[in-house]
Design goal:
The complex is a heterodimer of chains A (about 425) and B (about 325). Chain A is built from 18 helices and 13 strands. Chain A is an alpha/beta fold. In chain A, the strands form 3 sheets. In chain A, strands 1, 2, 3, 6, 7, 10, 11, 12 and 13 form a 9-stranded mixed beta sheet that branches. The longest helix of chain A is centred in the first third of the chain and has 21 residues. Chain B has 2 domains: about 50 residues; about 240 residues, MetI-like (MetI-like fold), CATH 1.10.3720. Chain B has a two-stranded antiparallel sheet with strand order 1-2. The longest helix of chain B is centred in the first third of the chain and has 34 residues. Chain B is globular, with a radius of gyration of 24 Å. The chains are: A alpha/beta (about 425), B mainly alpha (about 325). At the A-B interface, helix 1, helix 4, helix 5, helix 17 and helix 18 of A face helix 2 and helix 13 of B.
């Protein structure tokens, strides 16, 4: 009988342990919190506010420590507020989207583009008041990515231009001019392909990924949405998709690289003469190859009548509309990305290279004033472009899938664009409530 | 053998008078039942309701739309393609895994006293995660560089130039990558089930057949071993089909992650499609509707298969 009671007791202990383990995160963090609470309580707070701040996982070394450092600095200087950083590896948006459905979502988080569906679902807090008097100081394209119907839903943190790197020596050795049209790009890639060194590395999915696809679309003088109409199904875009398929056909593209397109490894290692990548990779590329050997160019135009293009991506900081502490969260975001030039310079240039969205801050960025980085900045006014805020994830998937069908399965571009336009139009109609 | 727990279970549910063991019963079973309800049944029911609403960027929708989500789903060629993909995948991978596991089981069993070592060796991959295995297959064994394992072997054999295994569509080498990783992960586990099945067959039958002049090898296998393992074989087939229809991990990790997720259109099973719809596009209702379609499909296949092969029938 005694052993029976013991075993029941044992079960309780196990259950209790499991329950405690479920809340593990909080309990593990408790000692740190307690110390900070004690410190802050000297100012006698009415209530202690804990802000959770989500970042996607940045690849550059030192970024995690920097994010922690900013949060700690703010926690220390602000009474009653503690910021906890959550660094999300893997599929950031899947985790974020699930978290935003609950009451436990992050107070502050990163987005690439603020989209209308998120605003319609009341996920984002308007932040117009933070920009009073300084709106003009922010990069206009970056602001386009956070502005919906005259309201601003995010503060741009970094601007990430994406374009094509080329190896100057390899092009010179092969007698190849820098390509400006698709036909020239195809010819150049073929000419640069020696078997061991491939002509161009777009990505492991043959260049089907979305940012590259955006650039190709603009390079065909085509846009995505005009008001309540999907407009990407143009004859020029059909021809651009045909040209991209032609590039695949040449067999001169690097495939199956162990690094993805956003990592300049394959280019630095000389596996390909050209690679699509972004400004963030510049420090590594210059270090690996020498500044004099690094060339940059926009995505080539369809033909002489079109304009080449550069994708202006980047990350913004938004505040969760369902957070109980929206005001505290906004104050924190303001301190980081509006007031604190030191943090902005550090975050934009201390690890990888990005363009600070505030022009007064960007003007202080010495690293962007010379060499290939300066050439990238010079391309932005003429060639830079970004997707509209009504362009949602669902439309993006539809468009990308259609493009991948063309590149990977040899589907007909005209037919795929037609189908994608119809499907995306349906999504847009639902979104706009038509 | 009747355990204390089974007794308590029977008393709780089948006899009205005994409350003696009720407390212990709930201590043991309660947490499990509670967990099942919170993490399994409630989400299923919730998902079912969700599938009849418009639920974008929310899981607490207000707009009832009837069967719209189901109709939209079947109007989406990407979903239809995903169903085709998974059916082709199942038809190919199930017989191969079945044959390989059975073959391994027979080989290992024939070793007699030494079988333990090989049993362990073949079973170890089962303990490996799909994600880990997928990444090894993608970045190490079958990467497209000259330094990749498979490409190295081809070079050594006949100086064959590097092949982009995952990105070559004609012929579709990516199926080789997807198929081998699943074979490697699964075969060992099903081999163990077959081994258990083999040990259930009474030795006396073999002895009797020897007396009657049966030759060991194919004849014995064809007329004794295989028929005697009918129920084992059918359960393995059922499990393999269900697992094939639930394919997700290796497809997502080999074809749909990183900066180059465009390759997922080459072979996108329904679960990867639904994951995208729900967690990237944030259309939770359509995702839920799709989950019920797949569940129904799996049930139909299972029932038909069970009927066809006579699951549960004895050999008499």
């Amino acid at each position: 009988m005694k052993s029976k009671k013991l075993s029941i007791l044992f079960m309780f202990v196990i259950i209790a342990t499991l329950l405690v383990a479920c809340g593990g995160g909080n309990i593990a963090d408790a000692p740190a919190d307690a110390a900070e609470v004690e410190e802050a309580s000297a100012d006698t707070c009415e209530e202690e506010i804990v802000l959770t701040h989500w970042y996607h996982q940045y690849g550059e070394e030192g970024t995690f420590d920097a994010a922690q450092r900013y949060a700690a600095e703010y926690s220390e200087m602000t009474p009653c507020v503690t910021v906890e950083v959550n660094w999300v590896p893997g599929d950031y948006f899947a985790s974020l989207n699930s978290a935003l459905l609950t009451d436990e979502g992050p107070d502050v988080f990163e987005l690439q583009t603020v989209t209308l569906d998120r605003v319609a679902a009341n996920q984002l807090e308007p932040m117009d008041d933070l920009f009073e008097g300084i709106l003009e100081d922010f990069n206009a394209t970056a602001m386009k990515r956070v502005t919906i119907k005259d309201n601003i839903y995010g503060v741009p943190m970094i601007i990430d231009p994406q374009f094509i790197y080329y190896n100057k020596t390899m092009l010179a050795d092969a007698g190849v001019e820098v390509p400006t049209t698709m036909d020239e790009l195809i010819a150049a890639s073929k000419a640069l392909d020696t078997g061991r060194v491939k002509g161009i590395y777009l990505s492991n999915d043959l260049g089907a990924y979305n940012y590259l696809l955006y650039m190709a679309t603009w390079g065909a003088n085509t846009d995505f949405i005009d008001g309540d109409q999907i407009v990407f199904n143009t004859p020029e875009n059909v021809r651009m998709w045909e040209k991209k398929a032609e590039l695949v056909e040449t067999g001169s593209m690097l495939l199956g690289a162990t690094t993805e397109w956003w990592d300049p490894g394959a280019f630095i290692d000389g596996l390909a003469a050209m690679q699509s990548c972004g400004l963030w990779a510049m420090p590594g590329v210059v270090e690996g190859m020498g500044a004099e050997n690094v060339g940059v160019m926009p995505w080539p135009a369809l033909d002489e009548s079109a304009t080449p293009s550069v994708w202006i991506g980047g990350w913004n900081q938004s505040v969760n509309a369902n957070s109980p502490n929206t005001e505290a969260a906004k104050a924190y975001v303001k301190w980081l990305w509006i007031d604190n030039a030191e943090v902005q310079i550090d975050w934009n240039l201390g690890y990888g290279f990005h363009v600070p969205p505030r022009s007064t801050t960007a003007a202080q960025a010495e690293a962007l004033k010379a060499g290939p980085a300066a050439e990238v900045l010079a391309m932005l006014p003429d060639y830079g472009n970004t997707t509209p805020v009504t362009w949602t994830g669902a439309m993006d998937t539809i468009y990308q899938d259609a493009h991948a069908e063309v590149l990977l399965n040899g589907a007909d571009p005209a037919e795929q664009l037609q189908l994608a336009a119809e499907a995306a139009q349906k999504e847009l109609d639902v979104l706009l409530g038509n | 053998m009747k355990s204390k727990l089974t007794q308590a279970f029977n008393q709780r549910f089948f006899s009205s008078k005994s409350k003696k063991d009720g407390f212990e019963f709930w201590v043991f079973v309660g947490p499990l039942v509670l967990g099942l309800f919170i993490f399994v049944y409630i989400p299923i029911i919730w998902g079912f309701f969700l599938s009849f609403f418009e639920a974008r960027n929310t899981v607490t929708p207000t707009k009832f739309v009837g069967l719209t989500n189901y109709i939209d789903l079947f109007g989406d060629t990407r979903f239809i393609n995903s169903l085709e993909t998974v059916i082709i995948f199942a038809v190919i991978i199930v017989p191969i895994t079945f044959a390989l596991s059975l073959g391994l089981a027979l080989l290992v069993e024939s070793l007699g006293a030494n079988s333990g070592v090989f049993r362990t060796i073949f079973f170890i991959p089962t303990a490996c995660s799909y994600v880990v295995a997928s990444l090894i297959w993608k970045t190490s064994l079958f990467n497209g560089l000259p330094s990749g394992f498979a490409n190295n072997i081809l070079w050594v054999i006949n100086e064959i130039n590097p092949i982009a295994w995952i990105h070559t569509t004609d012929p579709p080498y990516y199926w080789l990558v997807l198929g081998t990783v699943r074979l490697w992960l699964q075969s060992g586990f099903y081999m163990i089930i077959f081994l258990a099945g083999l040990q259930e067959i009474p030795r006396t039958i073999y002895e009797a057949s020897m007396v009657d002049g049966a030759k060991p090898g194919w004849q014995t296998f064809r007329h004794i071993t295989f028929p005697m393992m009918r129920n084992t074989s059918i359960s393995v087939l059922l499990l393999l089909f269900i697992e094939a229809f639930q394919a997700f991990d290796e497809f997502r990790n080999i074809l749909a992650t990183g900066g180059s997720s465009g390759t997922q259109i080459l072979a996108r099973p329904p679960l990867v499609y639904l994951y995208n719809v729900a967690f990237q596009d944030q259309n939770y209702a359509r995702g839920a509707a799709g989950a019920f379609v797949i569940a129904a499909l799996i049930m139909v296949v299972t029932v038909v298969q069970g009927r066809l092969f006579g699951f549960g029938k004895t050999e008499h």
